[in-house]
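Table S2 (text version). Query chain:
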Amino acid sequence: MPLAYERHGSGPHLVLLHGLGHRRQGWTAVLDLLTPHREVIAIDLPGHGESPPLRPNGEEPIRAMGIEIAGLLGELGLDRPHLAGNSLGGALALGLAAEGLGASVTALSPAGFSEHRYQVAYAHAVFSAARLGSLAIAPAIPALSRRPTGRGVLYGTMVSRPGRISPEQAIGDVANFAKSAPVMRLVFADPPAFTSPVEGVPVTIAWGTRDRILPPSNAAVARERIPHARFVDLPGCGHVPMTDDPELVARVLLEGSQGI
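Corresponding structure-token output:
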């Protein structure tokens, strides 16, 4: 069974990769701003959304995900599309670009650049608590999703403006978060540390100034490892910035994938 994806718009190809525990609908807030200028391919990562479970087959989990995504790009006939991703998706986009599979890469709060080991442990604790909490309050999730304050309870650590997320997206996201527990365990058992050189392509790395999962100070590590990258602040945005400021995020994605 192939990875699930959706395709919209026209123009140069732009592949969007979501973060750990999320799904391709996480990009919905920016789609209408991108599709007049790009043909967007939003993918559910292995073990997420409507995609089949991740089967590492002896590979590190991040490497296994990258292999599956690269396979889908080949099946779709996409020759070096522009790549973009958030969090784990950002690390995957950078990894694909490092293998020569992208024309450019834009990473939003990418994983793999933690300054200290405790940051990975903290992120693991936050994700585990969120998953267990969502199971514990499962009967109340529809009611919580209908109110901005309730969506704050569900999303408070991930975004800075949870009231901008629709009730329908909130309900779907929480269900997906529970479904992706097996791949979360695999990833946190072998967390990414991005050290591969990304050469010959433009790289943009953007970080939400209110990111509570991977702090903006991680950008300093990214700057050391990818010195030619363009670095952009996302003022007021959290770890998953697409709904916090769709116009800003869309602009960063378009600027990062232009002129190639």
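Notes on Table S2: The chain has a mean pLDDT of 93. The chain has two domains: 5-115+192-256, 119-182.
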